[in-house]
Amino acid sequence: MDSQTRSMVKACLRVAAVLAFLCFFGAGALLLGIAAEADTRQDRIFPVVLGLFFVGTACFAGPMLFAVGERFGDNGSKIVPK
Questions:
Q1: What is the DSSP letter of 82?
Q2: Statement: residue 46 has pLDDT above 70
Q3: pTM of the predicted model, to two decimals?
Q4: Number of structural domains, the chain?
Q5: Range of the domain at 50
């Protein structure tokens, strides 16, 4: 894989990391906002659990994609620990 292709893939992974973080975090925040307006406790349980899951996924998926993108440019197409 040549240098130009590597930098293009690295840029795509960075964009994917930001988009994944924003989408998951936004969905989680939306669900937590819906739960805050629920009338009863039973109406709040499912949106809170799902919202916290999405926020946790955002905090994991975004940084992991970003880390993969940073690793990808260091040693070619091999994504292995140093």
A1: -
A2: yes
A3: 0.78
A4: 1
A5: 24-75
